[in-house]
Amino acid sequence: MRTLIDLGSRRDSLYIIDTATAVDCTKDVRFRRSFRSLIECVVPCCGFQLPSKTSDVPDSDSTGGGATPPTTTVTGTFYGHRRGRVRFCLHDSSRTSPILLLEFTIPTACLAREMRHGLLRVALECDRNRARCSSLFGVPVWSVYCNGRKVGFAIRRRMSEGDAAILKLMRAISVGTGVLPGASKMGEGDVLYLRASFDRVIGSINSESFHMINPVGCTGQQLSIFLVRS
């Protein structure tokens, strides 16, 4: 309900403030800080930071013009001995040699536990000032984040005889998870593996991502891998 005041009928004089007054902004500042903390909790990205100020300058690494990044399909394989470290490799197909092979400083059993929740985001990050190679596949060492938590490092490796023997056993497997029997020389147990097709999205020379394609009729697992040179 609005109240109209007829200033012409007022008998008393109007008081006009013509001096500086103090305004209590404490509540507003507390609200902004609380809102910022809430956003940081809701968006648990790896290395995510809210921008301190807006900028109209476009990112030099972006594809620009709103163009859709190019996408191809590759085969990705996680494997490792039950009590050993996990490895990840990318192939053009399940029958070809890896175009990238990384060894994580993460136990295979630990990564398997992370996958049980159905949502796994693996971010590999490196410093562009230290990693001067032109291709992301040539970066020797990565920092590894799983669902926003730093869990160790990943090291680029050449395929060993042991890797070649394991991948040879999996040559006929295009998609699936399972266990390959046979203990290693170090007593690390059987080999656990996960193989799937991934959409490869090239964002720029400094960023690529790989998103697992679930088989038809299966929508339970969400797995993405990000390579970022920052």
Automatic annotation (TrEMBL):
It comes from Ensete ventricosum (Abyssinian banana). Residues 54-73 are annotated as: Disordered. This is Protein MIZU-KUSSEI 1. It comes from the Eukaryota. Transmembrane segments: none annotated. GO terms for biological process: hydrotropism.
